[in-house]
Each structure stands twice: as C-alpha cells, then as structure tokens.
Amino acid sequence: xxxxxxxxxxxxxxxxxxxxxxxxxxxxxxxxxxxxxxxxxxxxxxxxxxxxxxxxxxxxxxxxxxxxxxxxxxxxxxxxxxxxxxxxxxxxxxxxxxxxxxxxxxxxxxxxxxxxxxxxxxxxxxxxxxxxxxxxxxxxxxxxxxxxxxxxxxxxxxxxxxxxxxxxxxxxxxxxxxxxxxxxxxxxxxxxxxxxxxxxxxxxxxxxxxxxxxxxxxxxxxxxxxxxxxxxxxxxxxxxxxxxxxxxxxxxxxxxxxxxxxxxxxxxxxxxxxxxxxxxxxxxxxxxxxxxxxxxxxxxxxxxxxxxxxxxxxxxxxxxxxxxxxxxxxxxxxxxxxxxxxxxxxxxxxxxxxxxxxxxxxxxxxxxxxxxxxxxxxxxxxxxxxxxxxxxxxxxxxxxxxxxxxxxxxxxxxxx
Amino acid sequence: xxxxxxxxxxxxxxxxxxxxxxxxxxxxxxxxxxxxxxxxxxxxxxxxxxxxxxxxxxxxxxxxxxxxxxxxxxxxxxxxxxxxxxxxxxxxxxxxxxxxxxxxxxxxxxxxxxxxxxxxxxxxxxxxxxxxxxxxxxxxxxxxxxxxxxxxxxxxxxxxxxxxxxxxxxxxxxxxxxxxxxxxxxxxxxxxxxxxxxxxxxxxxxxxxxxxxxxxxxxxxxxxxxxxxxxxxxxxxxxxxxxxxxxxxxxxxxxxxxxxxxxxxxxxxxxxxxxxxxxxxxxxxxxxxxxxxxxxxxxxxxxxxxxxxxx
Lengths: 416, 311
Hints:
The structure holds two protein chains of two kinds. By secondary structure, chain A is an alpha+beta fold. Chain A is globular. The two termini of chain A are 34 Å apart. In chain B, the strands form two sheets. Chain B has a six-stranded mixed β-sheet with strand order 3-2-1-4-6-5, with helices on both faces. A four-stranded antiparallel β-sheet of chain B has the order 8-7-9-10, with no helix packed on it. In chain B, helix 1 packs across helix 2 and helix 6 runs antiparallel to helix 7. Chain B is globular and about 55 Å long. Chains A and B meet through helix 2, helix 4, strand 2, strand 3 and helix 5 of A and helix 1 and helix 2 of B.
C-alpha cells in the first residue's frame, strides 16, 4: 500500500467539509462514536443538519465560533492507498496555514462552487500550491447538482481555470465535476453527468502516479547524527545517519562530503533491519564510508560529479507567517536541512499579490501572510538546490531570534 | 532478516505506506537527539509507546538509544503492563526513570479525588510536569497519534510548551516540510510526537510485520468484569463494582492501556496481533471512544487536559 499526502483548502461554503466528510464516511474512516458526538453537538447548537465540519474542527474556539483556525490532519485508507489530508481554512488570513498544508502534499484539491465560479480564493489556493510545488493539482467543481449538472458550466470553469493556471508552474492539472452533498463523482461515477468520462475523485486519488515526483537524480544525504556505538564489539563503527533527500546511494559509490570536499566510497548502507543495496528518498538510513573523514551533523554527502550549489547569498521566495513584518536588516535564525545558521535580510525585491500575481516592486517589507522575493545572507555557506529541483534541499524555515517562533518559510531559487 | 523495501507492481523506488511513516518517525527522533540536550521518551508499556521505542532503537542502531525512558506510574497500572515495561527496558538496555503519582500525593503536590474508585488520570499531569522540571528534560517524546482524538488532530509534531507546561492550541508554530523548530528557552520544553501520522491500524500492522512483543492484556483472555457507563471495567484492587453492578466473567481484551480505573475492555476473541488487525479494520468505534472514560468528560476533555500539560 502506498501513501498519498493531500491538501485541501476552502471555506465551509465551498462544501469542503462535506466533501471530506463524505470521503471519510464512504471509506469508513468515520467511526460511530465520532458521528454520534458530532450529531449531539449539532443538535445542542440547534443546527438544522449534522455539521460534518465538526469532525475536523476539534478545538473549543473553533466549535464555539464555527470557524476553522488551523491545519487539521485526517486519515483514511482504501485497499489501494492510505491518505493523509492536511485540511486548511481558506480565508486570506490563513495563507500561512495553506502554505503549511501544501508543503508536504503530493496533491492539492482546489474546490470551486459551480454557481460562484473561479473566485479570489481559488486563484490564491492554486497559486500557493504551485509555489509550494505540489506535483498534482485537482480542481473539483462542486455543487454540480445546483446547476442542473450542466456540462457547459463545468467546461467554461475548466477553461477559465486552465488559462489562469498556465501562468503558474503546475506539473499536472486535472478537473472533476462533483456534488459532495449528493455524492456525484466522489466515490462512484455519477449517473447524472454521463458527459463526464473521467475518473471519480476517489479513483483519481487512488490512481494518480506519484512515484516519479521525488528527485531520484541528485544524490543528497544531509547528515543528521553520527552513530558511534560505545560498545567493545563495535569500537570502530562510524555511521552517518540521515534521511535521503535526493538520488540513490549504493555501496561502492564514490561520494563527496561537504563542506570538506573530500571524496571517499560508500562502504555500506545500514539499517536495523539489515544492510541495503540501495537507499533512496525518503528512507532513513545510516551510511558507512571507506575513509575516516571528519563528518558532523549538518554536513552533506553527495557525488563528486553532482554537487549542490554552495553559497552564503540566497535568493528565495519567502512566505511570511508572523505579525512582525520582515524588512531589510532583520536578523533571523534559518534552518536548512539539518543545520541552523544566522541570516540577515539584504533586500526585498518584490511582494507578490497572491490573488492577481502582480509584483509590487515598491514593497519594502513583508507583512503577515505576504509572499515575496527576498535576498538573504547567511553566516556559513549552505549546500542547496533550487526548490524547483528538490523540495528537501531547496527549502528553509526562518525563526525569530527573540521569540523562537517559526516566522517564515523559504523556497530557494537557483540556476534551474 | 532481509526486508523487501519495494512495493510490488508500483514501479521502482517506492516505499510502502508503513515504510514511509517509519522513515519519517526515525527522522523526527534523530532530529530531537541532535538538537536537544536532555530528551526523554515517555513509555507506558502501551502499544504506541512500544512501537515508539522500537523506532528509537532503529534510529540509533547499532548504537544505543541516547536518552532515558520515563514512565508516569499512577499506582493504578495493570500488573501485566508493569512487568512488561521492566522486561522491555532491560532487554534493550535503556535507562528507566519512574515518576510516581503516589509520591506526588504523599508529598502534598496533588490531592486524591474524593469518592470511591478515584481516578488519577488528571493527577498525572502534575507528576509529569514535576518530573520534567526535576530532570530538566527539554524534549519529551509522546506516543500520541493525530487520528486518536480531535484536539490531537491539530497538534504539531514538535509542540511547544511554556514554562507552565501549557499548550496553546491557537498559537502553534507553523510546521513545514520536515524542518522542525525545537527552539525554546530554559524552563520551556517541546513535546515531540513521532507517531503523529500513524493510525491505530498502522500500529497493529507494524506490530505484526515487526513481530513486536506487547503486554498480554492486549490479547483475549478471561477476566472478571462489570459494566459501567457502557464500558467493561475489570474487577481489581482499585476498582470494585457498586451494589447495583453485576460482576461476570468474559473473554475480553484491551484496545488501549491506561489506568484500571478508566480503561475499559472490549469483548473479543482476538488472540494474536494478526487477529487484531482484522478486528480493528472492521471496528466502527474509535479506540478512545470505546474504552476511555477520561475522554468522556466533555467534548473538549482532551483539549482541556492537554492545555494543562497532559500527554
């Protein structure tokens, strides 16, 4: 069984909660006691119908105010795949949650109300998904029952969205007309829309090909931890533990260690379950090397013929996530792969309007929920790839040095 | 034993779902060991903490787990589970710290609830926070899963706790990619949940695949029980039926391991982990809804306890 991480965004009005509720319910991921509890709360509040949003809105404040504050994670499985849904609220003030939910997603579901068409929130969500380089974007045109299952409505929304998406960097874009409330094209193909010949939503989620989405070309292992057992039987053991962030490593491979630049050979790839012939993303492994080189946490193992960019001057798209604005001259803590360094903001090139994609080059700072292109200088060289090429070695987070909160998320721009 | 790392028929270089979440959990555990000075792993002998311990073993193999293991002993634990705890910790050579709720009561830190069969569920928060302070632990691994409960569905993998040990659900740090932010000041700490993305079924499937040993109470056995609030409670030193509650013998097992006072058994003939995988897959009740009185206090019982510093 494979794992698919998906992100959803939108407000209750889009029928997002109904859609998730139906996916969970039809795949038997909602349990009777959860349903009873939701029904009880709905009754107490005097709702006319059982509000499935209560399944995901778990916090007291959310229930009291009828809003979704934060990313909620939901789990369901079919015989084909297990799904992890990062469910985020869609309002503009929650851009940071959409960015968070999309950061690990294989696929994003963008929901549109067939009656309202493509609105600001649709464009914002699609843009953020493309910024975070979610490989698959799925536009679900919902509430088709309320437009008489009209093919023309669907087709014109599809054209409008495709035209907008052509300005974005989207690898795979699909469209499905659905009614979450009636169940059309959610689990089963709809009998009400015989003109639609594609897969149902669930079938699409089960079948979409995700194996090629990882970087299997550029070998990268950021060292997390050096394993040196203090046991008499393994006095000479020295292993470099980490999660493969790109490419494939094999015993016998010639490798280079950064920052030292020294080269050696992979002696073995170890796991608790035995040695491996190959290690690839996202495996957590321990690599032994033939030569005794000084390696510590934060170093990177790569190949001599395939090295990342090494540099202290960074150019990145930054999503800002905290109240205090980001401005040139600000000092921040920056975490990239397995290291923390200090960073200073050199320049804010432009602020991007997440609704119109307009670049405001007069901007001098980034406020909460803004996205912009930023230059940074860091205290020590980073070994990085462009985010476009590798989500692991191309991303970083920024933390405030005084409050320690996670203040921003960065996607590195590079030669490609 | 050689392990098959591929998923048949789905192309090359693809991990199975369990291998995927295992790799993620190991990554999380290694990050904590590397970035914190004094981590500790909470171990109750329950299935989730047993799986977490196995993942920690894998993370540092062939080295030892570089942090101690801590049990919050309420004094109301199942004997079978305590024996299992000691055996398990000895086998892998880990250091065990036991923090006792009885000690917190005796030293006047907390007062036992009034009435017959008092629950110590809420009291353990004080014991836990005192132990974290006393040992100056800065990272505390917990085995909580997001699929367990609605407040937990919102919790971060690295979850910040202030100097009072409190969780502020409305003010959580965004968590992106696999870049975890464990920064904190002296006196504050981070709760870390490496099993966040695991479901109950994942845990059982992993127990089967890895042939992990669990306390015997997870498997079907005969036991004297009585019915209270729709749950089957075991008759024991800390729980006794009231006059109107009839005791009978039944074939039961436990889906979760908590205190004897608040953990109910389910009638089941599942005697192996394989049987339980089948049972869990078919179950229409969550494990906490079915068997935990501590979650039934109110809609937000878990959120309220978590805010105070609960597991």
